[in-house]
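Shift notes (night). Ran ABC transporter permease while the centrifuge was going.
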Amino acid sequence: MLAFIIKRLANAVFVMLSVTFLAFVIFRFVGDPVDQMLNEQATQEQRDDLRERLGLDKPFLVQFTTFVGRAATGDFGISFRNQRDVLDMIAERFPATFELVLVATFISLIVGVPMGVITAIKRQSWYAETMQFTSIIGISLPSFVVGIGLILVFSVWLGWFPAFGRGDTVDLGWWTTGLLSHSGRMSIVLPALSLSLFQITLVMRLVRAEMLEVLRSDFIKFARARGIPARSIHFRHALRNCLMPVVTMTAMQIGGLIAFALVTETVFQWPGMGLLFIQAVTFVDVPIMAAYLCIVALIFVVLNAIVDMTYAVIDPRLRGAEK
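Came back to this:
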C-alpha cells in the first residue's frame, strides 16, 4: 500500500509540473503584459525598467523554476494589473466558485438520479422518451447559450431571478456566502442551473445504464419471485447498488465544474475564480493565469488520488496490479 501511495504522489507531482510548464509555454504567446500596464507614450527605458521589476527580462527556464519554487510554498507572486498578492485574490473568489459548484452538483443529483431511474424502469413510456430527447439537447447546447437563454426567459421576460451578480453576501470569518441572504439565494439559481445542465445529463444516463444492468441481475429476479413490491425492488435494492459509480463520477466532476465554471461565471458576471481568470487573460496577467491553472490542476490531481486510493483500499487487487 505504501508503494502504491508513493507512486500516486510521484504521478501527481509530475502532472503538476507538466501543467505548469505547458501553461508557461502557452502564456508566452498570449501577449506582453508590459503593453497592457503602460500607455503608448511610455519610453523604452520605462518599458525595460518595468520588465526588469517584473522579472520578465530573465530567461524562460529561470522564470519557470522561480515560479515553481515559490508556488511550492504557496507564493504565486503579485498580480501585474492589480499589484496584489495572487493567492489572496484567488482566496477571495474561491468561495463564490465553490458555492456555485456545490449548488450545481446538488441540483444535478436531485434531478438526474430520479430521471435516470424513471427512464430505466419506464423505458417505453412517452415521458421517458421525452427525458431522453431533452438530455440530448442539454448535452449538446454550449454553456453560454444555455446561460443566455435562462437570462432571457427568467430575468428579462418573467423577472423572477437576477440576471447577474452574486447578491448580498454574509461574512463567516474568512469565508463569504450568499446562501444566507435572500438576494444571494435568488442570484445563484440561474447560474447553478446553467452549470448543472450537462451534469444532470451525465448523472441521468449513468443511473439509467447502471439500473438497466442491475435490473437484469439474478438477485433482482429472485426478489421479484418472492413477491417483493416493485417500488421496493427499484428504489431499495436496485438503486442502492448503482449509486457507487454515480458518487465516484460526481466527485470527479467537481474538479471539472470548477474548471469550466468560467463560462457560466462570465455570462452571469459571477465573481468567482473563472471570471478572475478571464479578466487576467484580457490583461495578460500571467501570475493569475498560472496560479488558476495550477490550483485547478491540483484539485483534479487530489480528487483522482483520493478516488484511486479509496479503490485500492476497497479492492486489494488494484494494489497488486500496480506492481
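The longest strand covers residues 170-172. The chain has a mean pLDDT of 84.
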